[in-house]
Amino acid sequence: MEYEAVIGLETHVQLKTQSKMWCGCANEFGASPNTHVCPVCLGLPGVMPVPNEEALRLTALTGLLLNCEITAYAKFDRKNYFYPDMPKNYQITQYDRPSTKNGLVEFEFEGKLAQVRINRAHLEEDVGKSFHFDRQSGLDFNRAGVPLLEIVTEPDITSPDMAYAYLEALKEILIHGGVSDCDMEKGMVRCDVNVSVRPIGQKELGMKIEIKNMNSFSGARRALEYEIPRQIDTLRQGGKLAQETRRWEDSTGMTEIMRTKEEAHDYRYFPEPDLMPLAPTPEWLAAVRARQVELPLAKKRRLMTQYQLPASDADTFVNDTPLARYFEAAATGAKNPKALANWVINNLRAKMAEAQITLADLKFPAASILSLIELVDAGKISSKIAQEVFAEMFASGETPEQVVTRKGLIQVSDTGAIEKFCDEAIAANPRSVADYQAGKAAALNFLKGQVMKLSKGKANPGLAGQVLERKLAQIK
């Protein structure tokens, strides 16, 4: 019997706020243990939580970016459970009335457009972090109470590679939207996997198994690459699968059972008595909508359509927003936007990396690169001379026209002058002439290079090639 996988993901994302969810403690990574704590985030008796409004705004913004419905009524609930790194012994979260629901993420996968439905994106708080040493353990509550968004998909994912592609697309959306920095090394994004297998053609889902403890998106992919065959082998051998939570061990490349999976009633959810329900006003939602940005996939499509760029160039600009802004500032009215993209992506980036500077440090405006390309397209300078002009622009901040005039770099297109250079090149290289007449086409390129050398790079290369071919054809 052939089986197929059914996968859903729960992605936990720390929101980009200055303070925690319920108190004024700093939301900051890397501080000494237990230095960003207070009675509220330590869960001491008698404290009262106060919602972080920026976290509420970022939650609604995420919903808009993920094509979700922003609900007219949402509330917070207490999810009761004990873990050493949960100081209150309950987590404030959203259970049956989340802030956003029913969304959709589109992304490219295997050359096609894939879609994964979003069940909900609800707001909650992060927990502390445990550290285990040889003979003792320590708890750092700096992370406890940090605003955390849980983004839950429908079971629309069918393979480990598709799960990885979805996670990468989700990360790009959240970073572009300014919702989170999504730095996985700092624990800003964590992912849990729900996976089951079923016979191909069966509509009913198989037994759902959750996998935790994955430190990267590639770790989630590897965990699925192990877990899916494990479940299939179990069923083929006549075994049964139980609903459970398993831990991914990256060192062994295997999943191990942690506990039998809890049901919702095990958490004894009830409405948080210290927090009012949320009912966003039209004015509040309008302010959030004003913060929406162009999504990465939409931006890629627009760049390819508007500027006729290949997918690789568009991807470069999607992944580097400042560079994309610079390109679009220069591309206004450009007749050859592809050439402009080449200069920005290849020449400009390489030069900035060599000089160890940023776009803000450039001495010339974006329009100067467009002017440089127009000089080449008009036949006034060669591509080789353009490289020299660009280097001068980069160093001095002069316009390309100023550099060309100052250094006398206007391309020679006078036929008489080029014929003279061609005659000299032919006379000095009889062997190459013989090679060309013997059918070796590469000899023409060598002779053209000699013409360019004699003209100090100023000869029009197209015209030089035409004159050379004509003169070589006349030689007996």
The amount of beta strand, in percent, is 15-25%
**What structural class do helix, strand and pairing data support?**
alpha+beta
Task: Report how far the terminal alpha carbons are from each other.
Answer: 78 Å
Average residue pLDDT: 92
Unreliable residue runs: none
Percent of residues in helical segments? 40-55%
How many structural domains does the protein architecture include?
3
Cα radius of gyration in angstroms: 31 Å
Structural shape = elongated
Strands ordered across the widest β-sheet: 2-5-6-9-1-10-11-12-13
* N-to-C SSE string, H for helix and E for strand: EHEEEEEEEEHEEHEEEHHHHHHHHHHHH
Count of DSSP-assigned helices: 15
Largest sheet: 9 strands, mixed
Itemize the secondary structure elements and their pairings.
Elements: E1 3-14, H1 53-65, E2 69-70, E3 77-80, E4 90-93, E5 100-109, E6 112-125, E7 129-132, E8 137-140, E9 147-153, H2 160-176, E10 189-199, E11 209-214, H3 217-236, E12 244-249, E13 254-260, E14 270-271, H4 282-289, H5 296-307, H6 311-319, H7 321-331, H8 337-355, H9 367-377, H10 383-396, H11 400-407, H12 415-428, H13 430-437, H14 442-454, H15 461-474
Helix pairs in contact: 2-3, 5-6, 6-7, 7-8, 9-10, 12-14, 12-15, 13-14, 14-15
What distinguishing features does this structure have?
single chain; about 475 residues; alpha+beta; Arc Repressor Mutant, subunit A; 3 domains; 9-stranded mixed sheet; 15 helices; about 40% helix; elongated
